[in-house]
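hey so u asked for the seq, here:
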Amino acid sequence: MGFVNFIRNLFRRKKRGTAIKYAYAIDAIIGMSDERFALFVKDMFEREEPGVRATAALAYMRLRMIIPEAIRDARAAGSESTHEEFMSLFIDRFSKDENSLRASALFFLGYLQFRLTEMANTNIVLRSTCADLWFKMASAGIYLSKILEASSSFGMFEGVPYEIKTESDGVGFITNILVPDCYRDDERFRLLAEAHGFKIWPKLT
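ran it, structure tokens below
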């Protein structure tokens, strides 16, 4: 799992106190140009197995609910939450063992997709890359039913508001629940829906 190794290496740098601190790596990611960041996220996703992409989609679902609320609460309290703080949180919080490290990596990967999707809302240059990643995540939805079954014992993804029992359910969930409306017009999603026997929901607007 490439992204686990990425997170693990950041930890090792932090613990060993080497000149290259993990914080600098985070700053470097945040400091990338929009286009460079998009390519970085694409590279991270393309290194992963489809099952990891599907799990990152579930992490995205959780973060999509958590992050805006956290930002609102922070601003109401007079604090300005930053992307650096969120990224550091994922790394710092899950450092005790291999399982928690993997969870951290999955949520971090979901977070990168969350941020890229937000950026693409205002930068149309990024939308092609963002659409590619969403299609890869939707295609990986065939693994969701097994992932949810395996994770039920420790509640990592409790509260998925959708019954996912089959491969088609998983692909349909990511396509219709998570993929933003603006990307579902892509012909690839129509063909994906046809192949798995479900309909793409109409846009909300």
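Confidence is low (pLDDT under 50) at residues 10-22. Residues 2-196 form one domain.
lmk if thats what u needed
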